[in-house]
């Protein structure tokens, strides 16, 4: 069973998360078990748009965990046959956004929910630390990016704001978020966002920095963000999942 061991006087100094053996259930057997896909089981299918930072997070997580998958390119614009606004895709994802992941006979939406499902069912390459304080810090960074920065500069929001104000709007919210994020990383980072282990925080950071550059945000005031982004972009999993390496990337950006 999963347990918490409290360490230090009255358990106030630190706590350690005790994981079950990898061969054991993650939770009660009636709730959730590790998944070992059958040899004839279909590969996970990821509905992804090349420049979507949310799709990029899931591509990185799948790649880091060595999970083979297929991509169904799904346009965020109302062009072509395979876009998010079709009735067919609404049945896959009622919010008509990307990513969506079909896996283990289920259809999952939202990048953070998908990453947690992968972590709970396929934990052999962990993206959450065992230490509960570090886990909390990873989740803090994930939420800062995925709840407090990215949604405010999402393409659907910018479309509503209007072309005349969209760039200023995106820059304002990314800058506001990065001021906080850089301070958090100053206290948590080692080689990566939280210590020296790759985590969901790193998976979320790189796509958001890409967005910041896309919207011409000055990154000079954020040395921790810039350093970590440079470190992470050198890793094969991050390189292969880059938007410019995707099958639906427009030719003018492909491979650059």
TrEMBL record:
Annotated EC: 5.2.1.2
What CDD domains does its record include?
A: GST_C_Zeta, GST_N_Zeta
Question: Which keywords does this chain's UniProt record carry?
Answer: Isomerase, Phenylalanine catabolism, Tyrosine catabolism
- State the reactions this protein catalyses: 4-maleylacetoacetate = 4-fumarylacetoacetate
Q: Which GO molecular function terms does the record list?
A: glutathione transferase activity; maleylacetoacetate isomerase activity
What region holds the GST N-terminal domain?
42-126
| Record bears the keyword Acetylation | no
Q: What is this protein called in UniProt? A: maleylacetoacetate isomerase
Q: Gene Ontology terms, cellular component aspect?
A: mitochondrion
Concerning its family, UniProt says: Belongs to the GST superfamily. Zeta family.
Domain of life according to the entry: Eukaryota
A Gene Ontology biological process term: L-tyrosine catabolic process
InterPro entries, alphabetically? Glutathione-S-Trfase_C-like (IPR010987), Glutathione-S-Trfase_C_sf (IPR036282), Glutathione_S-Trfase (IPR040079), Glutathione_S-Trfase_N (IPR004045), GST_C (IPR004046), GST_Zeta (IPR005955), GST_Zeta_C (IPR034330), GST_Zeta_N (IPR034333)
User: In what residue span(s) does the GST C-terminal domain sit?
Assistant: 131-251
Question: What is the organism of origin for this protein?
Answer: Drosophila madeirensis
- Give the cofactors, semicolon-separated: glutathione
What does the record give as its pathway?
Amino-acid degradation; L-phenylalanine degradation; acetoacetate and fumarate from L-phenylalanine: step 5/6
């Amino acid at each position: 069973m999963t347990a918490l061991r409290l360490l230090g006087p009255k358990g106030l100094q630190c706590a350690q998360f005790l994981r079950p053996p990898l061969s054991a259930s993650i939770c009660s057997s009636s709730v959730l078990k590790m998944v070992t896909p059958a040899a004839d089981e279909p590969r996970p299918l990821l509905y992804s748009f090349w420049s979507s930072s949310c799709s990029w997070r899931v591509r990185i997580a799948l790649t880091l965990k060595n999970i083979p998958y297929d991509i169904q390119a799904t346009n965020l614009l109302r062009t072509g046959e395979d876009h998010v606004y079709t009735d067919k895709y609404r049945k896959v994802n009622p919010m008509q956004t990307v990513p969506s992941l079909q896996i283990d006979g289920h259809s999952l939406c939202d990048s953070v929910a998908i990453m947690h499902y992968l972590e709970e069912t396929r934990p052999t390459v962990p993206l959450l630390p065992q230490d509960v304080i570090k886990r909390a810090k990873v989740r803090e960074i994930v939420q800062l990016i995925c709840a407090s920065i990215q949604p405010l500069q999402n393409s659907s929001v910018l479309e509503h704001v209007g072309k005349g104000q969209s760039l200023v709007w995106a820059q304002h919210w990314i800058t506001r978020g990065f001021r906080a994020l850089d301070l958090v990383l100053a206290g948590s980072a080692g080689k990566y966002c939280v210590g020296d282990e790759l985590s969901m925080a790193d998976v979320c950071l790189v796509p958001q920095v890409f967005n910041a550059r896309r919207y011409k945000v000055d990154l000079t005031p954020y040395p921790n963000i810039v350093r970590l982004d440079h470190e992470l972009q050198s890793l094969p999993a991050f390189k292969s999942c880059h938007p410019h390496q995707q099958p639906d990337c427009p030719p003018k950006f492909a491979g650059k």
